[in-house]
Structure formats: C-alpha cells, structure tokens
Amino acid sequence: MTAQKTTDTSDKLKGSIKEAIGKLVGDPKVEAEGKSQQKLPKSDAKPKQSSKP
C-alpha cells in the first residue's frame, strides 16, 4: 500500500467511528462530521486546530 492510500483508509475508518459515536450519543453534529470525513480526500480535510494557548 502507498502512504496516501493508507492515510485515506485510516481517515475513512476514523470517520466511521466518529459517525457511530455521534449516533450513539445522539449528537447529529458529530455524526455529520464523521460522514463528511469519510467522503473527503485527504487534501480537502480540515487541519486540526491546536488547543494550546
């Protein structure tokens, strides 16, 4: 597997987990984020924001 393919696969997995958690806790925002994360190619994904001051 190439590095890009591995990254895409892991992003889809993360998205499906996030979607399932959203369904479990009843949070439609988290569920929608998970669905969109599964569909986006890596280059279109939003960068994570740091919580450091």
Question: How does this structure look, described?
Answer:
The chain is an all-alpha fold. It is built from two helices and no strands. It has helices at 3-25, 28-39. Helix 1 packs antiparallel against helix 2. The longest helix is centred in the first third of the chain and has 23 residues, at 3-25. The chain is globular. The N and C termini lie far apart (38 Å). The model has no long low-confidence stretch (mean pLDDT 80).
List the helices and strands and how they pair.
Elements: H1 3-25, H2 28-39
Question: Can you give keywords for this protein?
Answer:
66% helix; 53 residues; 0% strand; mainly alpha
Shape: globular
Mean pLDDT: 80
Structural class: mainly alpha
Estimated share of beta-strand residues: under 5%
Please work out how many helical segments DSSP would assign. 2
How far the N terminus sits from the C terminus, by CA atoms, comes to 38 Å
Order of helices and strands: HH
The poorly predicted ranges are: none
**Rg over alpha carbons:** 12 Å
Instruction: Give the helix proportion (percent range).
Output: 55-70%
Largest sheet: none
Number of strands: 0
What would you say about this model in short?
The chain is an all-alpha fold and 53 residues long.
